[in-house]
Amino acid sequence: MRIELALKLLGPHAGMDAQDSLQTLTTMLALLRELEATETARPGAEGTRWTFNELRLGSVTCVLEPLRIAEHSTYDVVERVARNVVGGLYEAESTARIPTGWTLKAAGLGRRVAKSLGASPDVGMILEVRGDGAALRTAEITQRAALHLDEATRTRHRTFGSRRGRLSGLQEGGRQRRLRGVLRTEVGGEVIPVYFGDDLDPELRRAWRRDRVEITGEITENAQGQSMWMRARDIELLPTSPQLTDDELRGGFWPDMTSGQDAVEYVEALRGDN
User: Fold this and answer.
1) 55, β-bridge pairs
2) What is the pLDDT of residue 249?
3) Which pLDDT score is estimated for 258?
4) Which residues pair with 121 in a beta bridge?
5) How would you classify the pairing of strands 125-131 and 3-9?
6) Phi and psi at residue 36, in whole multiples of 5°?
7) Which helix (H) or strand (E) holds 206?
8) What does the alpha-carbon distance between residue 254 and residue 174 come to, in Å, rounded to a whole number?
């Protein structure tokens, strides 16, 4: 399938300020690269290169398509990334949350894309993912998305807790040159940057690329309770498959929870004589 990403900046401001228009397009390409790095768990690698197959003025209109797929990526990944760009900005248009599957960095780039837009659709932006020329997903984006992403990326709470998921994307980063990974959580679908101290190096080597780990540490959250990043204090390796058998799990039955009763007996016991 031939994948394209169409972008149209609406309103008189779109064709008047060349620097703003070019900055919006440049940031959009950076957002595509960040989401691809998250998808492929290769944050340090060069991403897929994109090219224009259409570019018009008036309102600024362009259509992007892949020029060269990155070696660590695939056509399917590029399609998911394009859908994620449109879906994430659409999500940001309606709620002050970090979009599903986006990192904190991606949310910051999305805010920059939307911040020069107007407050209504006629001075906003239209995004569309196309497959073989047919529209797969379309979204109208306004300044509201930037305001929501700005709110979603503000630090509000620091707690101590744990998250379970799969760890990937290890690299060295930050001013203190800490090791940084990305945890994809089992619950909530969060993509959380995690920073590790040198004292966790042996545990980190054992946990690397495992299907399931539990990381405990200091969690920085936004006002909506989304995890923005973590500083790890402990890493625990978890079983890669459920410990309960299919028979034990059928019909929602978990013996430890119901003290050995089946679902009907358990509900009757909760109701009592009534």
Assistant:
1) 62
2) 47
3) 61
4) none
5) antiparallel
6) -70, -40
7) helix 201-207
8) 44
SS (H, E, C) 12-77: HHHHHCHHHHHHHHHHHHHHHHHHHHHHHCCCCCCCCEEEEEEEECCCEEEEEEEEECCCCCCHHH
Q: Do residues 95 and 83 make contact, with C-beta atoms less than 8 angstroms apart?
A: no
Q: How far, in Å, CA of 166 to CA of 164, rounded?
A: 7
Contacts of 143 (CB under 8 A, 6+ apart): 114, 115, 117, 118, 119, 124
Enumerate residues 6+ apart whose C-beta is below 8 A from 113: 24, 27, 28, 31, 89, 125, 141, 146
Q: What is the largest CA-CA distance in the chain?
A: 76
Instruction: List per-residue pLDDT tens for the chain, 274 residues long.
Output: 899 999 999 876 555 678 888 899 999 999 999 999 988 888 767 899 999 999 887 678 999 999 999 999 999 999 999 999 999 999 999 999 999 999 999 999 999 999 989 999 998 999 999 999 999 999 999 999 999 999 999 878 899 999 999 888 787 765 556 788 889 998 878 899 999 988 888 888 888 777 889 999 999 999 888 999 999 999 998 887 645 555 544 445 455 556 666 666 766 777 775 5
User: Distance (Å, rounded) from C-alpha 81 to C-alpha 47?
Assistant: 11
Structure tokens at 39: 């998808």
- By the 10 Å C-beta count (0-12 exposed, 13-18 middle, 19+ buried), 214 is classed as middle
How is residue 57 written in tokens?
């003025």
How many CB atoms within 10 Å of residue 232? 24
